[in-house]
Amino acid sequence: MQPNQNVMGTSTVMEPTPEEIRDRKLYSELGLTPAEFEQVEKHLGRLPNWTELGIYSVMWSEHCSYKNSKPLLKRLPVDGPRVLQGPGEGAGVIDIGDGQAVVFKIESHNHPTAVEPFQGAATGVGGIIRDVFSMGARPVALLNSLRFGPLESPRVRYLLEQAVAGIAHYGNVVGIPTVGGEVEFDATYEGNPLVNAMCVGIINHEDIQQGVAKGVDNPVIYVGASTGRDGIHGAIFASEELSEASEEKRPSVQAGDPFMEKLLLEACLELVQKGILLGIQDMGAAGLTCSSAEMTAKGGVGLDLYLDDVPQREEGMSPYEIMLSESQERMLLVVEEGREAEVKEVLDKWELPSAVVGRVTEGDRYRIFHQRECVADIPVKTLVDDAPINYRQGEEPLSFREETAASYMEELTGVDPTEALQRVLAAPSLASKRWVYQQYDSMVRTSTAVRPGSDAAVIVLDGLDKGLAMSVDGNSRYVKLDPHVGGATAVAEAARNVVCAGARPLAITDCLNFGNPEKPDVFWQLENAIDGMGEACRQLGTPVVGGNVSLYNETKGSAIHPTPVVGMVGLVESRDHITTQSFQQEGDVLLLLGANFGELGGSELQQQVLGMISGRPPQLDLAAEKALQSAVLHLIQAGNVSSAHDLSTGGLAVAIAESAFAKGLGARIDVETDLTVIPYLFGESQSRVLLSVPKEFAKEAMAMVEKQGVTCSRIGEVSGEQLSIWINGVEVVSEQVSSLQTIWEEAIPCAMNASLTN
Amino acid sequence: MRFAVPVFPGSNCDIDCEKAITTVLGEPVDFVWHTQRDLDQYDAIIVPGGFSYGDYLRAGALARFSPVMEGVVKAASEGKLVLGICNGFQILQEAGLLPGAMRVNDHLKFRCDIQPLTVVNNSLAFTQDYRRDEGIQLPIAHGEGNFYCDEVTLKELEQNGQIVFRYVGSNPNGSVEDIAGVSNREGNVLGLMPHPERAIVEWMGSQDGAKMFTSMLRYWEEKIGAA
């Protein structure tokens, strides 16, 4: 069918003709290259009209097609005995036994947050929740990973304040607990903050849904908020660098309505329970276009869409606008012909707008009708499966070779240990995040056993003894200094956190936040980080079951630190195994597992003292990591561990302090070491865990650990209200836990309060 | 003892209330969709927390017009127990069943924490299993919990023993006289911002909420026994 080439009559704005699009190269405004435009022309066998061009441009954007990252993502392991659904659907699904599965995914909303932080962050949460319940799962937990510039900047304080409020608002209203996350601050994110939101859901195996259209003549049902002009081109916006002009893209940011989301969630889960749905997909990035095209392509069918039947918020919307709108809280359903009334009954109960907006057809045509005219007619596979792929070449930057020298050691080792500890605890990246997480309802649904503030959050499963541990992690400084090691470390640390909570790591979801992949050094970072992550995932037996790629995180031509963020889910076999990082009782013996190499490259201390990072990050021996995790989990499951804390940013000194804070229990450390004080206390060597165990169990615990080939030393005990550290017979730190805690607790509230007066 | 948990569009602590009643008391509990007017078959009603109607206009302001509120008002007038938790408290205030009004937290942010409280009045059907002035810990999670009433009302509340819970330590929302929960004059309707249903077993971090449910059951059993 030849679609109407003259659609001007249907729109409030004059749309260019196909010839104008070609002659004036208007496709470049939609982010398409001349070569891509030629491909479109070839696929259609004619010139595209404006609506068709819009559809191609969003479907072929990096955000929807992964055209720059697909070849690299194929290198990640996606299979495993527990994987029920890998990448490619709304979210990954992992078997957890008892006929149940855990469904989870992480996604970025960086660009929207940069220009409109409240709605940008809020709708990021909304989108990831829909990804999970479109699988048929009940969302049970939210986490997030945030990156901002230094809090000295009023703009950064505004961004943090609003982004956190937006995340809180959305999750709290929908009634899903936000149980964990991380927030880090670095100048690299000043113009380009990162907001990565993760959602975890629970499902019975038989309820797992797919985003697919099937069965000729079956109706396609639209449900949820009506379609407005908000968010048009959001997917393209997310695939460009940020610039001064980005403020003009503010209309590309959608406005969220968590109340609508709650209704949509309950209605969709009711339909899942009734077993009515054949296919369901969220209208997320690229809205109606992406959801309908992907479902159609996946089903190997065609589709007719009738835009006049789409619930609309505004009058006079053109097909282009309806197809590209990213209005939130919308879902597309495919059901068996004749069951429309059953569906409508449920949707009406929840007072949700809904309409049959299309039919599944034979063949492969994706056709759009508006005011009785065909306005688009596209072979659907060309939108999805035939999207262009860019095979890029990375290039190792010169600076990587030059960074090897560890010339900073001398300057760092001269710092007074107590002062170093105080500075590191006051650094916003390490300081208490209570100011952030107390704005999130972390307890709704009454399943949260470990709330924010420990290594990993834990929720328990109703009616069962088991639970899920969850963590999000990513240290971009390590990745900046060595993408391969940094990528692997992100996975290892996330797994270690989950192990410290008493869980066996199951699988990960990842969010890859990088700069412009067209730059060879950025592509090199991406490539190496992915390889590092893949290696760690294989070694630790945690496949990647889904995720998101966010490229073009740049401002004024300068890329952010490469920031892969790993969301890990682990299985706690029994509630008795749930462990936190807090010291529990006076007299417990402190055991340090793993070897300390005193590595300060990319460390928090280096950043604090020198104002920059250099050298190489801590090295990672994945075999040692695996042995450590196995030993820790073994000890916890044996039932004799009071607390377990992963050593990460800030090293041993910070780990001890953090473990002391929750109950105000101090520690006396007394060690002999070949290292000097600063590298010993603040080095960030990987694969280490601090345990406290009851005295009577200490010897046996050490023997158990050493039997597994893991270095273990007794470094002191939980005692008093003082943190006292003796190294080689000299007391190098002697501070009240409470005074250290004050520094740690007040750093962020003090920095943020400035925003009220400045 | 038969419990009803009315469910409004946007309620999100309804399931938690049901779990608490089942876990602590093992008594029957039904979810009642907001369009149902008749609650005659129930002995007690728990109006759950959440964001009914998205808290649009004002927390609780829309829910109070739902048909089910006719049943709630009737139950209250018959002397049955009506407990409003968080958003349920706000709804009962809007419906005129409880005194005062709720303002946005004084720090303008949502606050979730485990909060120390004292039981000011332990002579109510809801609190009889607590000791007088008992220090307890209950989770809070709200953005509009800043209880307000005028001086005259405050004096009345104090004189009538209608102030049932107060915050201890730092007041998390700026409420008048650290008020966390109030009852009606008759004592059969209680509203509180903290969440007793989130503190019933050890792993939740506090079990102090359980006594509110056991109090209600004991009251009902004694009333039935006396009849």
CATH topology of the domain at 1-75 and 209-387 in chain A: Phosphoribosyl-aminoimidazole Synthetase, Chain A, domain 2
Record field, number of beta strands of chain B: 11
Structural classification of chain B: alpha/beta
State the shape of chain B: globular
What pattern of helices and strands is seen along the backbone of chain B? EHEEHEHEEEEHEEEH
Query: How many β-strands of chain A, per DSSP?
Result: 28
Strand content of chain B: 15-25%
Distance between the termini of chain A: 62 Å
* Name given to the CATH homologous superfamily of chain B: Class I glutamine amidotransferase (GATase) domain
Gross geometry of chain A: globular
Widest sheet, order of strands of chain A: 8-10-7-11-9-12-13
CATH class category name of chain B: Alpha Beta
Q: Do you know the CATH topology of chain B?
A: Rossmann fold
Under the CATH scheme, the architecture of the domain at 1-75 and 209-387 in chain A is Alpha-Beta Complex
Main location (chain A): cytoplasm
Organism (chain A): Marininema mesophilum
Domain PurM-like N-terminal (chain A): 88-203, 453-572
Pfam families (chain A): AIRS (PF00586), AIRS_C (PF02769), FGAR-AT_linker (PF18072)
What does the model show?
- The complex is a heterodimer of chains A (758) and B (227).
- Chain A is of the alpha+beta class and 758 residues long.
- Chain A contains 26 helices and 28 strands.
- Among the domains of chain A are: 1-75 and 209-387, PurM-like C-terminal domain (Phosphoribosyl-aminoimidazole Synthetase, Chain A, domain 2), CATH 3.90.650.10; 580-758, PurM-like C-terminal domain (Phosphoribosyl-aminoimidazole Synthetase, Chain A, domain 2, Alpha-Beta Complex), CATH 3.90.650.
- In chain A, a hairpin with a 2-residue loop joins strand 19 and strand 20.
- In chain A, helix 19 (483-500) packs parallel to helix 22 (622-638).
- The longest helix of chain A has 21 residues, at 154-174.
- Chain A is globular.
- In chain B, the strands form two sheets. Chain B has a nine-stranded mixed beta sheet with strand order 2-1-3-4-11-10-9-6-7, sandwiched between helices. Chain B has a two-stranded antiparallel ribbon with strand order 5-8.
- The two termini of chain B are 15 Å apart.
- Chain B is globular.
- In chain B, a hairpin with a 5-residue loop joins strand 10 and strand 11.
- Chain B has a single domain, classed as Rossmann fold, CATH 3.40.50.880.
- Helices cover 24% and strands 25% of the residues of chain B.
- With 227 residues, chain B is an alpha/beta fold.
- Chain A: Pathway: Purine metabolism; IMP biosynthesis via de novo pathway; 5-amino-1-(5-phospho-D-ribosyl)imidazole from N(2)-formyl-N(1)-(5-phospho-D-ribosyl)glycinamide: step 1/2.
- Chain A: Keywords: ATP-binding, Cytoplasm, Ligase, Magnesium, Metal-binding, Nucleotide-binding, Purine biosynthesis.
- Chain A: It is an enzyme of class 6 (ligase).
- Chain A: Monomer. Part of the FGAM synthase complex composed of 1 PurL, 1 PurQ and 2 PurS subunits.
